[in-house]
């Protein structure tokens, strides 16, 4: 158990990354009840946008300066693609049977992957991404925090806090809550619900770009396929936390991240389960956790079932 | 003087099924006009079309001298048309105060909004007592009060109330009807859709009886209240 603090820290950092991406699923679902399966690709495009911004900077720019500009570049790319997808792919299907936009989302996901694969220079292989270098921070004897992990652990809660305040306090946030709860009545209040829906897509995409930069500076590379499994994990996190609930996205992400890192470390220590531990089985345990939670709480950890009185 | 609301030959269809088949009526400023009729007569469809939630398939709507065709729902409230929808549709997870503030979403006069929220609490004291409570925890009658208070927050020229007494206890129903009388006395123009024909007719200046998408009969409320066919069909008399 000596390495437990380290495993927890690793799990938290991974979970924070999942949580950032999960916001995009949960915001869009909360407002238009659409599972935007192309969101993993929005995350990936955020990564390539950030890389483009980095390449455009003079060589030798310090990462301290470059990272904020990369986040901006990534967010411009991801928000542009996400809002265009909303406008041209999803909006025409707003009143169609729910299967239609879902299939559109899956198709869009493939199209976006292939576009990046085919059009972005050298994207057929992983492209190297500026990595955060330097020694890990020593917290305790048995707990070291890598710089990239520290980065995401600071950034994710800050983004969440900003989003929470925005939704709770601002006029647009109030309009967003109203639209999520009752879109037709929101229109009767004078709320332009189309604009609110675009805003939900844009916020989710911007968070995905932040996540993509955090991912890139940790791994030192990005690739056109990276949105698939991470998107699936983040979607799992959103469902785990209670889809539609923004805090649920973060909680679900952290629970999932911890489950993965603890399963990698400890499952193989359980007698008779040596075969089922280690990194190869992490995804399996993550989805086992999802199934167990959904059996006990189908609405997710923070999801609520509000009975609206008739 | 022209009417505040002028509806001419309005038609609304859901796919191929026409729910409103060419109705015409008008509402003068200061009047209470009611549409009565059974379920499926097209009353709610008419109101939802007036507030832009449904697109008409034909006819003309003129409000305050301006045509409403093509105006999106979220812009109609700014013209002075407020709609308290059937089934209340309060925002269940927001507080009462937040619901009222949303009714004033397009207004920018903070002091005026505060004053009108206070006015809503004066009109419905129970809302003031529970102002910090989530609206979903209110009883049906309280939710109806909130829906009406919220609609008034936009300072409408015309207030449309859809089935305000639906599903309420007799005492609560009476309270809601008294409020409508009070609003009328204050000069609010109201277009009221009701299944409780007795109550609606007794307070309406002008009434229209709708049947399967058409207006069958029109006249002053007091007159229809004593019309034999109306009494038989809608007031349950033999």
TrEMBL record, chain A:
<keyword id="KW-1003">Cell membrane</keyword>
<feature type="transmembrane region" description="Helical">
    <location>
        <begin position="12"/>
        <end position="32"/>
    </location>
</feature>
<comment type="similarity">
    <text>Belongs to the binding-protein-dependent transport system permease family. LivHM subfamily.</text>
</comment>
<keyword id="KW-0472">Membrane</keyword>
<feature type="transmembrane region" description="Helical">
    <location>
        <begin position="196"/>
        <end position="216"/>
    </location>
</feature>
<dbReference type="InterPro" id="IPR001851">
    <property type="entry name" value="ABC_transp_permease"/>
</dbReference>
<feature type="transmembrane region" description="Helical">
    <location>
        <begin position="279"/>
        <end position="296"/>
    </location>
</feature>
<dbReference type="InterPro" id="IPR052157">
    <property type="entry name" value="BCAA_transport_permease"/>
</dbReference>
<feature type="transmembrane region" description="Helical">
    <location>
        <begin position="39"/>
        <end position="57"/>
    </location>
</feature>
<feature type="transmembrane region" description="Helical">
    <location>
        <begin position="247"/>
        <end position="267"/>
    </location>
</feature>
<feature type="transmembrane region" description="Helical">
    <location>
        <begin position="63"/>
        <end position="85"/>
    </location>
</feature>
<keyword id="KW-0813">Transport</keyword>
<protein>
    <submittedName>
        <fullName>Branched-chain amino acid ABC transporter permease</fullName>
    </submittedName>
</protein>
<keyword id="KW-0997">Cell inner membrane</keyword>
<dbReference type="InterPro" id="IPR037294">
    <property type="entry name" value="ABC_BtuC-like"/>
</dbReference>
<keyword id="KW-0812">Transmembrane</keyword>
<feature type="transmembrane region" description="Helical">
    <location>
        <begin position="150"/>
        <end position="168"/>
    </location>
</feature>
<feature type="transmembrane region" description="Helical">
    <location>
        <begin position="97"/>
        <end position="120"/>
    </location>
</feature>
<dbReference type="Pfam" id="PF02653">
    <property type="entry name" value="BPD_transp_2"/>
</dbReference>
<keyword id="KW-0029">Amino-acid transport</keyword>
<keyword id="KW-1133">Transmembrane helix</keyword>
From TrEMBL, chain B:
<dbReference type="InterPro" id="IPR017871">
    <property type="entry name" value="ABC_transporter-like_CS"/>
</dbReference>
<dbReference type="GO" id="GO:0005524">
    <property type="term" value="F:ATP binding"/>
</dbReference>
<keyword id="KW-0813">Transport</keyword>
<keyword id="KW-0029">Amino-acid transport</keyword>
<keyword id="KW-0547">Nucleotide-binding</keyword>
<protein>
    <submittedName>
        <fullName>ABC transporter ATP-binding protein</fullName>
    </submittedName>
</protein>
<dbReference type="InterPro" id="IPR052156">
    <property type="entry name" value="BCAA_Transport_ATP-bd_LivF"/>
</dbReference>
<feature type="domain" description="ABC transporter">
    <location>
        <begin position="5"/>
        <end position="237"/>
    </location>
</feature>
<keyword id="KW-0067">ATP-binding</keyword>
<dbReference type="InterPro" id="IPR027417">
    <property type="entry name" value="P-loop_NTPase"/>
</dbReference>
<dbReference type="InterPro" id="IPR003593">
    <property type="entry name" value="AAA+_ATPase"/>
</dbReference>
<dbReference type="InterPro" id="IPR030660">
    <property type="entry name" value="ABC_branched_ATPase_LivF/BraG"/>
</dbReference>
<dbReference type="InterPro" id="IPR003439">
    <property type="entry name" value="ABC_transporter-like_ATP-bd"/>
</dbReference>
<dbReference type="Pfam" id="PF00005">
    <property type="entry name" value="ABC_tran"/>
</dbReference>
<comment type="similarity">
    <text>Belongs to the ABC transporter superfamily.</text>
</comment>
